[in-house]
Amino acid sequence: MALQCRLSGATIQSLKTATIPISSSSSRLIFRPIPKTLNLALFSRHSPPKAPPFTLLIRTLSAPAVTVAPAIEISENKVVKPQWKAAIDFKWIRDNKEAVAVNIKNRNSNANLELVLQLYDKMLNLQKEVERLRGEKNTVANKMKGKLETSERQRLIEEGKNLKEALMTLEEDLIKLRDELQLEAHCIPNMTHPDVPIGGEESSKLRNMVGSSRKFDFPVKDHLQIGKELDLFDFDAAAEVSGSKFYYLKNEAVMLEMGLVNWTMTEVTKRGFTPLTTPEIVRSSVVEKCGFQPRGENTQVYSIEDSDQCLIGTAEIPVGGIHMDSIVAESSLPLKYVAFSHCFRTEAGAAGTASRGLYRVHQFSKVEMFILCRPAESDLYHEELIKIEEDLFQSLGLHYKTLDMATGDLGAPAYRKFDVEAWMPGLKRYGEISSASNCTDYQSRRLGIRYRPSETSSATSKKGKASLATTKFVHTLNATACAVPRMLVCLLENFQQEDGSVIIPYPLRPFMGGIELISPKFR
Fold first, then answer.
1. Could you give the angle at the alpha carbon of 177 between the alpha carbons of 171 and 179, nearest 5°?
2. pTM above 0.85, yes or no
């Protein structure tokens, strides 16, 4: 059995049973596109270099998420049961049916709204019937407490037995109906900001254009040629060791990665963000709750064989899980994090010259920003995140544009998404280097992250004390501060010189031991 949800363009994700196939284990980490699982017996990490005196030395994109249904179990009698449940507001969906239907259409989703509403109505009716039978069962039980004729007691015993059996049947049906409702409802994407343009990626709206493309008076090289001539990376050796789309960084490229990470972490922490390093293996359920699909034919996620764990594709996932199933103090909001992690993606379906070299790889380093805030403030913090991104890229001297992405390009969790695309002269095109998404309460309803407003409720308890205010779901936002490989592409291609050298942008030099220029190595 497969549950299919198609959102975010033409991408079709198929979710099959969450039972992970078991095969013989080995002591190696195996990356393979089909199936998207890892046989993981040993997972090691190299020790980071010794910290320099200037600041933190921390080891260093957020692809659109897709709507997913929670992991399911299928037993022999075909009962489908989700592993977790989201706090979906079905009444709101029913009361705003027309708006939800238009949103589903605009986002190219195949969510079945009519079926969701039918299941919801059936569930409400069944709940009423269950409550009625429980009431009758309690009435019979109360009657049997008094003195009764033998015949009357026997009649009540039979009536109670029949009610119990009927109630058990209805309660089982209610559980199955709720599970089916959850699975179908998870195909419904988040609502969309009213200013988001409607259509495919080509309908995305330009928000800002900074700088202009550099005019070269010599033949422009792409980053692959530059890297080869400057001995900065090795794709051939990595292909032998790990497979295609892996790479070794060498010499100054290593220092450039470390410099980018530490500079980015330093700049973002100055703005009030708490620095983090995160687990890079997480439970599949956390991946799903953040809106990503860990298993399926076109998944971008590496799953670990014979386990319920995955390698992360972005630090958004483990950071989102920090406050899972908790109520945070309103006084602590907003919670702002900037996290460094390695990221792993299958890049299923990615091919061609547009994704060659460092532009699209299976493993990379990234710095991610994440905010949890009050609902009324998420639009404000979305603007703050995109401004931080633009400030970082502008200070490096990059020519870029910022886009308000159209409905067809939004992942299921995103209410609105801004992309930053930088000019890459060697590739002769703009390439995405960052994005910033406001996910409103889509993720928090699945992760169970709430806050309690500081004002007390107007209602009073039986003891005469003011009741606590009802909890509300926080809004979550995420944004890429630095996706290292694509930043390397930008820097190498934009700052190449006629003699083959590459100039290091001034802000990065203190984080690279004072290196100002990557020069050709004469042997």
1. 105
2. no
